[in-house]
Design brief:
Shape: globular
Structural class: alpha+beta
CATH architecture of the largest domain: Sandwich
Distance between the termini: 31 Å
CATH topology of the largest domain: ATP Synthase, domain 1
Helix content: 25-40%
Radius of gyration: 16 Å
CATH class of the largest domain: Mainly Beta
Number of helices: 2
CATH superfamily of the largest domain: F0F1 ATP synthase delta/epsilon subunit, N-terminal
Oligomer: single chain
Largest sheet: 5 strands, mixed
Strand order of the largest sheet: 2-1-9-8-5
Length: 136
């Protein structure tokens, strides 16, 4: 019995198909889902989402969002969902450097701190995802 996986960002439905299993970065750590998983809603943190279909594993780098798991479906709502080709390493490194520099400034307020920390987490996740594929 397959599991329906949907990955949606504000821009588009990135993926929608039946898969064998899903592993994703939940708020409490890595979370795996198989068909007939207990219902669950949890926060998604930046990291790597993997799924298997016909014994072939595919991966996306996801950002912050929500995950809803039911017995037969996993729905991922994320601010980003990129495969390796969608990540420009130079652009991400530049964004990370700007964010880190902003964190060192004295005039940064608490709301901006949270936004910059989220940007740093997404940038680090994208760099890790891209660099991991380079070493494979």
């Amino acid at each position: 019995m397959p599991l329906q996986l949907e990955i949606v960002t504000p821009e588009a439905r990135v993926f929608s198909d039946e898969v064998d299993f899903v592993v994703l970065p939940g708020a409490e750590g890595e979370l795996g889902a198989l068909p007939q998983h207990a219902p669950l809603v949890t926060a998604l943190k930046p990291g790597e989402l993997r799924y298997s279909k016909s014994s072939k594993v595919q991966e996306y780098c996801v950002g912050e969002g929500l995950v809803e798991i039911t017995g037969g479906a996993v729905r991922v709502l994320s601010d980003i969902a990129l495969d390796e080709s969608g990540i420009d390493e130079t652009h991400v490194q530049e964004a990370l450097a700007r964010a880190e520099a902003r964190m060192k400034e004295k005039d940064i307020g608490p709301e901006e701190v949270a936004a910059v920390q989220a940007l740093i987490a997404k940038s680090v996740a994208q760099l890790h995802f891209k660099r991991k594929r380079r070493s494979i």
